[in-house]
Every structure is written in C-alpha cells, then in structure tokens.
Design goal:
Length: 246
C-alpha cells in the first residue's frame, strides 16, 4: 500500500512513519509513505501557502493553488488510483471498521490542513473523504494523518508479528480489550487473576472474552450496542453483570 501525505511539515510525517511497526512495514515493502510539501509548489516570490478568507474574520486558510499543484504531483508519482482523504474536525469520526476498509485500498493521499483549513471549492473538487480522529481541534492535520498512517499501516498483511497482535482481536469486533498482566520477576503474581496462572487455555480465553465484554458494558455501552454477540458472549456478559451487581 502507498500513502502520500501532503503537509507543510513533511519531516514530521517522514519521522513518525519511520518508527515501530509502521517503520518495519516500510522496510518490509508492505507500506510506502511519501511526504510532499505544498510550499515547494508555491509560485510567488514569497512562496505563500496561506491567504486571508473572503468575508473577513480572523485566521488564514491554506492557498488552494500550491495545494492543487502539490496534489497533482503526488497523484502523478504512481499510476494507482488515489483515494484522497482530508483530515479535519468536520469529518465523520474514524472507526476501526473504516480503518479496515481504508487499509484494503491500494493507495491513499492524505491532506493535512493548517491554519483554519482549506478552501471549500478545493474540498469539493479534490477531496474524496473527510475524516476526523476525534472531537477536538489540533493546530494541524499532521497528527491526525500520523494516526491514520499507523492504524492503516499496522493492518497491512505481514506488518504485525504474533507478539504485536495479541490485543488486536477485541478491537476487531468492536469491544474494549481485556486487562493484561506482564510476567515479571519483580512484580511476581500478586494481584494476577488466578485463571491466568492456571494453564487452562480454554478458561483463560473465556475469562479474557468475558473481561472484554464486561469492560465494554461498563465503560463504552455505545460500542456494546453495536457489537455482534453470539449466545456464548451473552451468557458470559450476563454472568459478568451478575458478579458485578452481587
Ligand atoms: C483548525 O485546524 C483545522 C481546521 C480545519 C481543517 C483542518 C485543521 C487542522 N487541524 C485538525 C485536523 C484534524 C482534526 C481531527 N479532529 O481529526 C483536528 N484538527
């Protein structure tokens, strides 16, 4: 998968994409992240990338012309069709389900807004999808783009070793993760649930599933409402709730 990121701070994108699982996916040829700077496509003497808004008011907007030229160059760098995503507080919130769909695409181009964002005409003409990573405002879209690169990059086939993917499952089916307890000589087993020391893998799997279900019920009932539970899940959750209310 190829991800081109258009940002006034390309070094931020390059450095964050070179780390950890995503960096390893890059080394394994599973993911290619390329950063592009609209300032390199500004044609005036001052290399302007921002401009005042029509209608007055505080704040600046990103200038559409350098952005359009930069986007054109990025698209032209690879024949694969590009799905253009604009990270902004005005987009629908990113979910793991949408991350999975984006991770299956051959190519993404991510636009990072700065100042107060982009010209609406540019958005209508060039953007396929607006995405927000949460209901808060950042000084730029770069952190949101790095979140998307990480969430999508780690799902590329072969990016996660077994060691990384332990807690992958519960999020995959829309539940919170169960608690984890690290083996440690210093900490010993004080406070570690006995089932985890039992060696009974079926019981451990059941306990972990029950903890995921129970935590989701307690902390994120909105997620639980959307999760697909089978009969065994519903029995485990009922048992958790009984214990909780006892
Ligand atoms: C005032 O900033 C903007 C205004 C408009 C667009 C982009 C920006 C850049 N900032 C962002 C970007 C994304 C998110 C998010 N929640 O995904 C939060 N902030």
């Amino acid at each position: 998968m190829r991800i081109d990121v258009i940002s006034l701070f390309p070094e931020f994108i390059r450095e964050s994409a070179a780390l950890g699982v995503v960096g390893r996916a890059g080394e394994r040829g599973l993911l290619q992240v390329q950063a592009w700077n609209p300032r390199d496509y500004a044609t005036d003497n001052y290399r302007r990338v921002d401009q005042r808004p029509f209608g007055g008011g505080p704040g600046m907007l990103m200038l559409a012309e350098p952005l359009a030229a930069c986007l054109g160059a990025a698209k032209a760098a690879d024949p694969a069709p590009a799905h253009v995503v604009y990270l902004s507080p005005q987009g629908p919130r990113l979910t793991q389900a949408r991350v999975r769909e984006l991770a299956a695409m051959p190519r993404l181009v991510l636009l990072c807004g700065r100042y107060e964002g982009l010209d609406e005409r540019f958005i209508e003409r060039e953007v396929d999808e607006e995405i927000s990573i949460g209901d808060y405002v950042l000084s730029g879209g770069e952190l949101a783009a790095a979140v998307l690169v990480d969430a999508v990059g780690r799902l590329q086939e072969g990016a996660l070793n077994h060691a990384d993917s332990a807690s992958q499952d519960s999020f995959e089916d829309g539940l919170l993760d169960c608690p984890h307890y690290t083996r440690s000589e210093a900490a010993g087993t004080e406070g570690v649930p006995a089932v985890l020391l039992s060696g009974d893998h079926a019981a451990i799997a059941r306990w972990r599933r029950q903890q995921s279900l129970g935590r989701t019920w307690l902390r994120r009932p909105d997620l639980l409402a959307r999760a697909r539970l089978d009969a065994a899940d519903r029995a485990l959750l009922a048992d958790f709730i009984r214990q909780w209310q006892a």
